[in-house]
Design a protein that fits this description.
Order of helices and strands: EHEEHHHEEEHHEHHEH
Number of strands: 8
Number of domains: 2
Radius of gyration: 33 Å
Shape: elongated
Largest sheet: 4 strands, antiparallel
């Protein structure tokens, strides 16, 4: 008799007695524990985090939660093949690894970008003590409520394909012209790359109520927290893959032994099973 150990083993009638032996071996400790619970007749009390107590499950409730052999087979057939799980898991791990690397790069940039670094502000539109908007180093304009009439400047500059100094000059010219039609007291301050204020200087002048040092520290803490969460996901996924590999290796080993004991010497291990064993 020739049997292939692969993803179809759970629907193979010839494998049923061997799978049942595996099923019984895995649930035997659970049944032993349930028998002990029934014999003792004691229902455990569980302490909850809030300081209260709850009754544990009864032996009959544990017993009812165990799937029958046929139900177990049905559940196994619905689970994606191990090779598919490993492929998806490895792909997920690679994606997470890239996210972690990118997040660490962003963190280093955030740490280096202290409040005393250049603000990248190239121009400011204002009226007295009120800031209407400012143009950044990339030529994009950041607006406040008093200058929303400049919203369409981005689209116009994009359509013209303007970048760098040309884009900044265009934003300045169009911004001044438009704002002058609405206000007669608009002030425009321009800066070169070497004269632009630091982030702290810009903040202290136009946003004195904003705690820039606190925001800087909070940003770093948030990014570190994000990296820690990503690394936890990465490690968790890796452990899950290891568990899957151990489980399939355990199943293959058990079935091979069971088949050999039954004198079924012509046993073929499928490509999938071989790949799984190598992964383990």
């Amino acid at each position: 008799m020739s049997v292939t150990l692969g993803s179809n083993i759970f629907s193979n009638p010839d494998m049923r007695p061997h799978l049942k032996k595996y099923y019984e071996s895995k649930y035997a400790p659970v049944h032993d524990r349930i028998a002990e619970m029934k014999e003792s007749g004691v229902q455990k009390t569980v302490a909850l985090p809030d300081g209260t107590y709850a009754k544990g499950l009864l032996a009959d409730q544990y017993e009812a939660a165990i799937p029958s052999f046929d139900k177990w087979l049905e559940l196994q057939e619905k689970i994606p093949s191990h090779s598919d799980q490993v492929f998806a898991g490895n792909a997920g791990n690679k994606t997470l690894r890239k996210h972690i690397e990118l997040a660490k790069e962003h963190l280093q940039g955030a740490i280096a970008n202290t409040p005393d670094q250049p603000s990248n502000v190239r121009a400011v539109f204002s009226r007295g003590d009120e800031i209407l908007g400012f143009i950044g180093a990339e030529g994009n304009i950041n607006l406040h409520s008093g200058a929303l009439m400049l919203t369409n400047l981005h689209d116009k500059a994009n359509k013209l394909g303007l970048q760098g100094e040309e884009r900044i000059a265009y934003m300045l010219e169009q911004g001044e012209e438009t704002l002058s039609r609405f206000y007669d007291d608009v002030t425009i301050e321009t800066y070169s790359k070497s004269t632009m204020p630091t982030a702290r200087e810009f903040n202290d002048k136009w946003y004195p109520q904003y705690d820039i040092d606190k925001a800087y520290q909070q940003n770093i803490e948030n990014q570190k927290k994000n990296i820690a969460e990503l690394e936890e996901q990465f490690n968790s996924l890796g452990e899950e893959l290891n568990n899957q590999t151990r489980n399939i290796s355990d199943l293959n080993t058990f079935l091979l032994k069971s088949l050999q004991e039954a004198d079924l010497t012509e046993v073929n291990v499928s490509t999938e099973a071989q790949g799984e064993a190598e992964t383990a």
